[in-house]
Amino acid sequence: MADDGMLLNFELGGAPIKSRVKFKGGAWRDRVKAQKSVKKWQQTDDDPSRPPKRPRTDEDATDRQSKTQKTVTPTEIRPPSYAMKTGQISSSVFTSNPTAVTSFNEPEEEEAEPAQPSNAPLTDEAENFLALGLSRRVSQHLAAKLGMKAPTAIQKNTIPQLVKEDTDAFLQAETGSGKTLAYLLPIVHRILMLSMNEDGTSKDTQVHRNSGLFAIILAPTRELCKQISVVLEKVLRCAPWLVCTTVTGGENKKSEKSRIRKGVNILVATPGRLTDHLDNTKVLDVGTVRWLVFDEGDRMMEMGFEDDIRTIVTKIRQDKLSKQNKEGVVLDGILPARRVTILCSATMRMDVQKLGDISLEDAVHITASKADMEKDAESGAADEALFSAPAQLKQSVIITPAKLRLVTLVALLKSAFARRGSMMKVIIFISCADSVDFHFELLKSAAPPEKPKPSDDAPDAPVPKPNPHIATTAAQAAYVTSPASPIVMLHKLHGSLVQSVRTATLQAFTACQEPTVLITTDISSRGLDVPAVDLVIEYDPAFAVPDHVHRIGRTARAGRAGKAVLFLQPGSEEGYTSLLNSATPIVPQLYESILQKGFASAIDLPPPAPSAETEKQTWMSRAENLQLHFEQRLLTAPGGQDYEDTLKENKWKTAKAAKNSRNAKPKGSPLLDAGRQAFRSHIRAYATHVRDERKFFDISQLHLGHMAKSFGLREAPGGIGGGALRRTVRPSEAKTHSRDKSSSTASRPAPSRRDHDGDEELGVVDEGAARRMKEKMMSVMNSTNEFNLG
């Protein structure tokens, strides 16, 4: 009893007194979490409404153990082998993956005999270029200098038509069948006949570079223009007095005007640059132009060149056709009496038909087969299913979950270069330029490049200097090398690179004597003829089926064998194979077989590598260790310190700098920033598939957390639908764009760097479509998963 007479009576009850747990040390956030966890368990124990637990018996333990042995696999019960320094646990790549719908247990039907090449030169001895109507000079040059003794099927059907007739033509044949020479040879032959008689003797008046411009060839990309020019220069060696040149975006316009002023007979150009020269170059006279060729016309329409094409066709047709040139050489009778338009494409789509309506008049549809031409003439339309991939091309589809995409790609490349000489050149197609840059930086070797050494045959010869244009686009590859291929070169190519770098990179990839890989976008999918390409990998599916046909057409060209591999995810994407037309069956493969084959031997991991405790000699553990290695590389700053530790150490510097600048941030890992940007661009590009294929590539079904693992990220970054719009404008729109920049880009999401030619002619993104895509993607980002806190 107290001195004042008050009595304090407290009822404690029968429960034991629980002491309050206190935590000391560590971060205050961790102490708060631990305190809340203890409080939660105490409240659970004090809840009277919760029924008491039933005591376990021996029968329950036996039943539980038997069920566990039946349903749980060793992979699912394996504890995590590593954890981040920050306390976050990195999940295994073999858990929580969706199950593939495709059946892989069906026995493969053995072919009675290998498929015959469908785009190879004809074997009939009677079929030669001389019999098709070409002059003896051109035929002998093709056989002696270029090694071409027999034409292909499309050349056999096209050359006589363009040599004898003056009608428009639409050439359609599968990739790698020789469509370029099919229209070049008749043009060169008829121009050459202005200077030569039928018996091969020279005429008194000889045509030269100042005799006039006779043909204009348009192509969608600069790389394709360069390739057409190279082929044309080889053909024109039989007539050195004829000159060809190219005008493309990214080149010096003054030098192009100088070449045009000196004189040119055949001009190869991109639509935007040709329109510019038609408006501003007065010496460009199109009065003698007899041929206008659109190579890969569907691609030009897709890239937004419709207005430029209309301008070109209008300006050429409105000029009066000259019957003789300035020197008095009569052109009628040898050259066509009218302007002939030729349209080339491997596929028939609405863009091509629209371009045909703009440029063609009473055109003849020419295909590789006479039967197909007769069938099309009767039906009045072309069957797109007839124009699929070459028959000798072997196609396969790898069904792999999103978390295993990156390690499966490395395993595929490692197994491809496991045998000496089995694989020389590989092309990997990726959807956007940001993703190309990231994968190039991730897969390239960190070791400095070796300096070139003098040759053993000529030790006194000067050592060639490295090309500065490919310093950032070519490097030695890591992870995919083997004892059979100790050196594998890696190249990257996309439309955001400057023209000099693009040209040098493509030339280096073509001339490389070592096994090499080209990581590129769709800029390399049209018309490029790179020799010895044995494998094409579509790491990201094409945005439309015709683009898929052009992609895989980079291999199996001119009768050569080739392989094409398509990556798809389990679920709705597996139905995409029903849209693909192929002369041979498309073989489905599960990722496990690729991983077992690729990781049968140990991987030489550069630092930072996993510790020795996790180095198990199984393909599954090697795949996990490789994924862990990629994630640690992204979280490691350039100086070798962990990125999270760098943030903590620089926290006080950030707080101090924030007083002076609102945007002050600690410097992080460049590779991590590149991975996040590549992830955002990939998700945006994923939403741009054509309407008919969007049911297979539904962005609402995409697991963003799992997809982040394929970029070496441990969680999906935010900001997919935000950012400023990057667009390229014409010079005439520069002033308007600068005035409206603040108002027009404030509410637009940043598009992915889905590739384009890089010229000034890129179209403007539709505001409504961009806004709808942003809303849809943000709704997906707000969905709950173990990787997304948003």
Give a short overview:
This protein has 790 residues and is of the alpha/beta class. Helix content is 35%, strand content 9%. Strands 10-11-12-9-13-14-8-15 form an eight-stranded mixed beta sheet. It has a seven-stranded parallel beta sheet with strand order 3-4-2-5-6-1-7, with helices on both faces.
Structural descriptors:
disordered C terminus, alpha/beta, 790 residues, single chain, Rossmann fold, 35% helix, 15 strands, 8-stranded mixed beta sheet, elongated, 7-stranded parallel beta sheet
Outline the structure in words.
This protein is of the alpha/beta class. Helix 17 links the parallel strand 13 and strand 14. The strands form 2 sheets. Strands 10-11-12-9-13-14-8-15 form an 8-stranded mixed beta sheet. The chain contains 25 helices and 15 strands. Helix content is 35%, strand content 9%.
Architecture blueprint of SSEs:
Elements: H1 28-46, H2 58-71, H3 74-77, H4 136-144, H5 153-164, E1 169-172, H6 179-192, E2 215-218, H7 222-235, E3 244-247, H8 253-262, E4 266-269, H9 271-280, E5 291-295, H10 297-302, H11 306-318, E6 340-345, H12 350-359, E7 364-366, H13 370-379, E8 393-399, H14 405-416, E9 425-429, H15 433-443, E10 474-476, E11 489-493, H16 499-511, E12 516-520, E13 533-538, H17 545-552, E14 562-568, E15 587-590, H18 591-598, H19 619-634, H20 643-649, H21 651-658, H22 670-686, H23 704-709, H24 734-744, H25 767-781
* Content-based structural category: alpha/beta
Shape: elongated
Q: How many DSSP H or I helices?
A: 25
Number of strands: 15
Please, what is the CATH homologous superfamily of the domain at 390-447 and 469-634 and 669-716?
Answer: P-loop containing nucleotide triphosphate hydrolases
Distance between the termini: 59 Å
Walk across the major sheet and give the strand order: 10-11-12-9-13-14-8-15
Stretches with pLDDT under 50, minimum 5 residues: 65-89, 107-112, 375-386, 661-666, 723-753, 756-770, 780-790
Summarize model confidence as the mean pLDDT: 77
| CATH architecture annotation name of the domain at 390-447 and 469-634 and 669-716 | 3-Layer(aba) Sandwich
Q: What share of residues is helical?
A: 25-40%
Q: What is the oligomeric state here? A: single chain
Radius of gyration (Å): 33 Å
Reported for the largest beta sheet, the result is: 8 strands, mixed
According to CATH, the fold-level topology of the domain at 390-447 and 469-634 and 669-716 is: Rossmann fold
* Broad CATH class of the domain at 390-447 and 469-634 and 669-716: Alpha Beta
- How much strand? 5-15%
